[in-house]
Amino acid sequence: MPAIVPFIIATGLSEGTALMLLINGPPATAIWLNHILVGFIVFRVWAWINYRRKLTAAKAPQAALSTLLAANPLFQLAGNLLPVLLIGAAFAAKGLPALLFTTACALIVLSGWYIKFIIVTRAAHVQGFALGTPAKAAVKV
Fold this sequence. Notes:
The relative contact order is 0.15. This protein has one domain (4-123). The chain is elongated and about 65 Å long. It contains four helices and no strands. It is mainly α.
């Protein structure tokens, strides 16, 4: 199985759970959902590290590795560490837990979109399917 598959699955689970919680609001009674979300974030961190490690071992182009290395701090800090800290702070906070929780969920979703955008548009150095320019049809008069 390609190393990108677990990462895409982990990111999808994290984003999907965070988006569901953003739409429905912070769970007052379903605290277990917060634990599931944190578990998905941990899975996403593992899958990201595994993906980058396998790319390095497979001798991926240096430009792709450099692009992913440049995106790594923002993704790891703003997309994984900060949301976990905000979810933890939301449990401890008395006044603004909904704001902290909503911010954490938004960061999870946005960071997932960001890293997939980087992978597809900047790190991928393979042109996939492309349409040629259409030929003009001969006009018969």
